[in-house]
Design a protein that fits this description.
It is a single chain. The chain contains 13 helices and no strands. Helix 4 runs antiparallel to helix 12. The chain starts with 11 loop residues before the first helix and ends in a 7-residue tail after the last helix.
Length: 309
């Protein structure tokens, strides 16, 4: 499609097919930052990640069987799933879980909102997708909002500055790994294989890599037999993984990684709202302005047309 070609407006059904899963994913992932904090403590982080994606992979494979999708991939498909699992379900989440050991969950969520930046850049490099003017304007407005939230979090965090910056650095590594996985989902290779089966094997292979790394670095499996921990594993494995990831990757295939990443702009706002209810988070004028700007930028960006190729 040339840059000057006029695109017919999408029907409302198509818009709803994007907006509904977009809203569901944003609400689910906005809650996970709080749940993850309950996974840290007795159980080493990598074992918690292992349990999460073992549960998620089994749930996804069961869904694939119910949907009568193939339960096996060819050698190329398995290689793709293994790389996706490494980037998304091993490196990304191990960085995120470790970051929350050093800084607040709200700050990690705020930093992760930067996902839209590498997504947009990598989409341009590897997928040939251009960011239109409206998408750029929305990005600038939203990132200004995220910056205000970031400043607010830095000011209120009681930890030493070295601890804060270490947590931020680890989170940024997770952001880059997640971005690579996002771009992979928009490639033609990804579209050749059934999504449920691919994600199932990516989670299971990722859980295997997580478990091997956990055993090598922390020793045999450790599990916390409490209702809170078990409920957290099931919620993160089934709802936040087996339900949310197929919805999110489906959005990527329709509107591209750059626009799909706008969920990461609203997620910290939801995370902070939940923190207000359960952790005593206190809002300031700065944080409120940041949340408002993030929302405005999101609306502007999502009204832009699909990225041109």
């Amino acid at each position: 499609m040339s840059e000057g070609t006029t695109t017919a407006p999408r029907p409302n059904s198509t818009k709803l097919a994007v907006l509904i899963p977009f809203g569901i994913v944003t609400l689910i992932w906005g809650s996970t930052w709080l749940v993850i904090t309950g996974q840290l403590g007795v159980v080493p982080p990598t074992w918690s990640v292992t349990y999460r994606f073992l549960v998620g992979g089994i749930a996804m494979l069961a869904w694939a069987a119910w949907a009568r999708q193939p339960l096996w991939l060819d050698a190329r498909g398995m290689g793709f799933a293994a790389l996706l699992g490494l980037m998304q379900f091993v490196l990304n989440f191990n960085f995120v879980y470790r970051a929350e050991m050093h800084v607040t969950s709200g700050l990690v969520a705020v930093v992760f909102a930067l996902l839209l930046v590498p997504n947009a850049i990598l989409s341009r490099i590897f997928l040939g997708q251009r960011m239109g003017r409206q998408l750029l304007v929305g990005s600038v407005v939203a990132m200004a909002g995220v910056a205000l939230l970031f400043i607010h979090e830095i000011r209120r965090d009681p930890l030493a500055s070295g601890e804060v910056y270490y947590g931020i650095g680890v989170t940024l590594l997770g952001v880059m790994c997640a971005s690579v996985a996002n771009i992979m989902q928009a490639t033609e290779t990804s579209k050749r294989y059934p999504m449920a089966t691919t994600i199932a094997w990516a989670m299971l292979l990722g859980a295997g890599m997580d478990g091997a790394f956990a055993w090598a670095t922390t020793g045999p499996p450790v599990f916390e037999w409490t209702a809170t921990y078990i409920a957290g594993v099931l919620y993160l494995g089934i709802v936040a993984s087996a339900v949310a990831f197929p919805l999110y990757f489906g959005i990527i295939r329709v509107i591209g990684p750059a626009k799909a990443a706008y969920s990461s702009v609203l997620i910290p706002v939801i995370a902070m709202l939940l923190s207000t209810l359960f952790e005593g988070y206190r809002w300031s004028l700065l944080a409120g302005a940041g949340a408002a700007l993030a929302g405005v930028g999101l609306v502007v960006a999502l009204k832009a047309r699909r990225p041109a190729r």
